[in-house]
Design a protein that fits this description.
Two copies of one chain form a homodimer.
Chain A: E1 10-14, H1 16-25, E2 30-35, H2 43-54, E3 58-61, H3 64-69, E4 77-82, E5 94-98, H4 103-115, E6 120-124, H5 133-138, E7 147-151, H6 154-160, E8 165-168, E9 175-176, E10 186-190, E11 208-209, H7 221-233
Parallel strand pairs in A: 2-3, 5-6, 5-10, 6-7, 8-10, 9-11
Antiparallel strand pairs in A: 1-4, 2-4
Helix pairs in contact in A: 1-2, 4-7
């Protein structure tokens, strides 16, 4: 058993809850489930075993893989799955991340995007690997509920879209997030954690800034994205509790 | 030179920018500055040396401390500083974190809070150590621009305040964040990353929920806090660019 590799066609859901989420959402991509001898035979465990038995998914009792794949002491179940393809809905709203470099951030952003109903994610390379187990774990399984597509550059993405407003988030954007008029169909675009969006985005679509004082240089990426997602989607959630 | 210890009276700003930020904001608490032999003698370095010379702060050229304190390869300057006390402004708006357990989250939250002008932070124990170098670094120096105070429990904090609305953020809060009437003076209250706020907060103040769909269990803490801070402060930033 080797470490996770970006080049391989297999990834891992680390932990009991995450493995259950994997089974519930991507059963056809599950290859096998590993169980550590310290795993309690509790309700969640029983659920996982039942699903595996029903679907002829092999359960392997072995502690070795846990040392290789997990740096957390309390991870006692691992779900191995085949990396899967998804199809972007080009009529839906998109979140576009240009050159995201931090795996934890990417996972957290996916979780928030899914929660706010933005389930189509564009990633412009170079970028982190969405199937890295660290991303999967930080997404708390929300990765199993989004469509995503990698592009080599932003202009390739532009060729695939029409009839939507592009909103690049930049420090000196022309429009204030809280008051800008929001189109019904949109792509929210965010740059790299350290460098933001390249200068070319100053002249693309409707640029947006999130106002803050000058005591900080910028918001961190995943906070900026979560605020942007919230502001653009909050009217969809007014009556729900 | 030992590792950072919570019990000691000394902490560290890891990195060139962070050390400059420390010198600019808390010069009287700086004990000494360490420089690695790989540090380039660039503009920021010269600034740091000038400030240290003007203020009789010792500069120590040594690589040893970097192995002990930093896990990042590109950290070549460390500012050692005396842990400092701050005074909460009990007339200002507060951010209250109950049992925060993740150092990176705490730092990021402080950065966003300072950016949105909320510079008084209450922390209810048990909680992470705000002076841990990981928190200092994740705050990008914003820690040097806030007032903070630890309380053993929430009721001790309640004894110190008056004339403000308490807004606990809970999953089933009575009020929707985006439409709730906002008092002018307030405390925004958030719970632990994994467990949220204890049940007693259901009956304190004006409870708030951030609406999202049921594809996720909850938002992660630092995204929830950043959204709450944004919504409560955005009207202060409407005309600024």
């Amino acid at each position: 058993m080797n470490k996770y590799k970006k080049e391989d066609n297999i990834s891992y859901a680390l932990g009991t809850t995450l493995t259950l989420y994997l089974l519930d959402n991507h059963i056809n991509d599950v290859l096998r489930v590993y169980v550590h001898n310290k795993q309690e035979h509790n309700d969640t465990y029983n659920k996982i075993v039942n699903i595996c038995n029903k679907n002829n998914i092999e359960i392997i009792e072995s502690d070795k893989i846990f040392h290789t794949l997990s740096d957390k002491d309390n991870c006692y179940i691992i779900g191995a799955f085949k990396k899967f393809d998804t199809k972007i809905d080009f009529n839906a709203n998109h979140l576009v991340l240009v050159n995201p470099s931090n795996m934890g951030n990417l996972g957290t952003i996916i979780r928030t995007a899914v929660g706010f109903g933005i389930t189509n994610l564009i990633i412009v390379k170079p970028a982190v690997d969405i199937f890295d187990p660290k991303v999967v774990r930080a997404s708390m399984g929300a990765l199993f509920n989004i469509n995503f597509k990698y592009y080599d550059n932003f202009s390739d993405y532009q060729k695939d879209i029409s009839n939507r407003t592009l909103y690049p988030f930049i420090l000196n954007g022309e429009n204030n997030l809280s008051t800008v008029k929001k189109d019904n169909t949109y792509s929210l675009i965010f740059g790299n954690e350290a460098t933001g969006l390249p200068d070319e985005f100053d002249h693309i679509g409707t640029t947006i800034r999130i106002n803050h004082n000058n005591k900080i240089d910028s918001l961190n990426l995943d906070n900026a994205v979560s605020i942007g997602l919230y502001e653009f989607t909050k009217d969809n959630f007014v009556d729900k509790k």
